[in-house]
Amino acid sequence: MKKLLCSALLICASLGLSGYTYLTDKAVELGKIKAATYYSDEWVINFWNSESEDMDEELKAIKEDGFNTIIVCVPWREFQPVTVGDIYNDYAFKKLDRVMLSAEANGLSVMLRLGYTWDYYDESDILKRYEELLYKSTTRTAWFSYAKKIYETVSAYPNYIGAFLTWEDFWNFINVAENFTEGYTAESLAKSTGYSDYACENYSREELEKLYGEKIDPERLTFPKKDTDAYKVFLEFYDDWLNRLLRETQEVFPDLSMEVRLDMDTYGFEDDEAADGGKKGFTHEITYPCGSASYSSNMLSANMGFGTAGELLEAEATAGMSEQILKKHAAGAGKPVFCDQFLFTDNTPGFEDNARLPEEEIDGYLRLMGPVFDRNTIGYGIWTYRDYADNIVYNSQFGLGLEGWKHYGGVRVENAEGSKMCRMDAGATITQELGSRNYISSENTKISMRVKAETPANIRIKLGSSETTVPVSGDMEIDIGLPKQEKYTLSIHTDRDILIDDIKVYSHITRAGVYNEDGSEGAHLQAIRDLNSSLD
Description:
This protein is of the alpha/beta class. The chain folds into two domains: 2-181 and 209-387, Glycosidases (TIM Barrel); 406-507, Jelly Rolls. Helix content is 31%, strand content 25%. It is built from 14 helices and 20 strands. It has helices at residues 2-14, 55-64, 76-79, 90-105, 126-132, 137-154, 172-177, 184-192, 195-202, 205-212, 231-250, 315-333, 359-376, 525-534; strands spanning 33-37, 69-75, 109-116, 160-166, 257-260, 265-267, 280-282, 296-301, 337-343, 379-382, 388-389, 406-408, 411-416, 419-424, 429-435, 445-463, 466-482, 488-494, 498-506, 509-510. The protein has an eight-stranded parallel β-barrel, surrounded by five helices. Helix 2 crosses helix 4 (90-105). The N and C termini lie close together (7 Å). The relative contact order is 0.11.
């Protein structure tokens, strides 16, 4: 471990870095960071409003599996519900304190993914506030206030070691801009975001006309279409904006880094005669240095660097490609790198044709990645430590009482067997507006819940226009399926007294094979333990 420490310090000294967060007195014993993204028995999007009654046991298991750090995603809106006024969610900060204390008690350091996009706090347009960061002063003020408050909260704990933004949490505006390529509104948005000024300051009118492929009026510039060469100007502008946002946030959140984008965007005029369709590649290397941060962060997936659809990869070649990618990132960053989101398998719907490691190659790849991470990074973080369902129910475990639920008849939350459960008297109903919350998959909806009925009861479960009645008795798990709908209300009615808990409405389970959704050991747990052991 001392050898690792000295090596890392020499790297920092050679790069002229100071204040290397991970190797201060707080984190000197880590050597290499080995992190698991923590979301308890739910998933990242509704972790903060879940009960997590087994947190201590879960964090103890993470430590026993060879990890020394957890990563938690901190959603902007759930911690700061509105961008006008200094208003924060007490329950979210109380849980953050609880996470820090429990992690410390179990010998774990904590890192944060700051500014996570998604939560189910309310039905407001969450993406709008990220867009407004480009042009609305009150939203920017709120962002810096949020970042400062989070930093002040976690930096008070000795086991806090660092935080990062991710490019993908701020990338949705790219899709918005594609809808504003002509008209007055497009001109206004291009001006207010600063794109017009950036383009005219960095390119002459003649250069812009050549890139746009048409005559332009610099005073009426709009966002370029993706199939023009001018699209690279917009990508350059956005990378520059991300860099500025990071630098300004670092003023209130010291040593904040960013997960940078390692893959390329394509752009340019179509050319049917060209083998690649005439498309050009745009790299985001300008973001790699991450301002004043002492390290640069990344997301690394096993299929990165392999472009053949459906290609089955081999462990040794894949580890070699992963090392090339990490080396390139480190060279472009000019400072140590951290892999905060390591994906060795991916069953996300819509990406079935991506190159992938077959099951029999995954363990070999994981064991080969120990030396790769050792040589090229200050550590890594696994994303899917425990398989999870894309549950769209807010306060699904009643840890916040009945917040988020409407109820009729005798309904209350009480402690039962160390967990909060919802007691429903005979004839009672609870409902939740699920709005247009997004599933991962387009498959039919699955609904599950735990029910305790002292006497046999019938539960009527309704989702939108579909409903079914389920007989229950004793302590049991309900698992049913209903047709998928876009907008819906979940309604649960009982004809007898019952206790109900752990309600999930979902379409997909993300699987990685470390731990299964129920907490049992997965097929690749031992290989992950071996990877961690090799980084000791």
